[in-house]
Amino acid sequence: MEETSPITLNGVREVDEKKLVGFCVLCNDTAGYGQEIPKAFMTLERRKDEIKQLVEPVKLIGSFKASETSKEEDGYWVCYEVHDFEEIPERMVSLVVPSQKYGVLNFKGQSSEIYKVYTYLHQWIGENGYNRVPDKWTLEIYSKWTEYEDNVDLCDPIF
């Protein structure tokens, strides 16, 4: 029996503007994100009924900027996409991610392994004549998220 790869390269995709509502996770060190992001995802999942105008209530979206930008944009944003902002729930935040071109890779596996997969995506981007744009929003679009397994499109901004 042939084993399928947990990684599928999807190439280049234009992603339209996204309006996001959720939580911003901010940690002092990288190790903290590994613990705090899953907690934020679970809290957001429990509170998603409070968010108005959800686009797809099963698709969680993580977003971050790979390079230092501003204090207001620092951290990892755990969100749902909305059609429009309306009555942002208590302790939640909103974020607009402008339309952007991305190098996209699908990963099925444990969230703790996602950071390793970015190396493969970054290599593909360079080998195919694109440049990464680390000061733009990276998106992680989850079609399945649990504590133990994810199905996620990793979208790294390119030009």
TrEMBL record:
SMART domains: AraC_E_bind (SM00871)
InterPro entries, sorted: AraC_E-bd (IPR010499), Cass2 (IPR029441), Reg_factor_effector_dom_sf (IPR011256)
Top-level division of the source organism's lineage: Bacteria
Residue ranges constituting the AraC effector-binding domain according to the UniProt record: 10-159
Pfam families: Cass2 (PF14526)
Signal sequence annotation: none
SUPFAM superfamilies with a match to the protein in the record: Probable bacterial effector-binding domain
Name of the protein described by the UniProt record: GyrI-like domain-containing protein
Record organism: Halobacillus shinanisalinarum
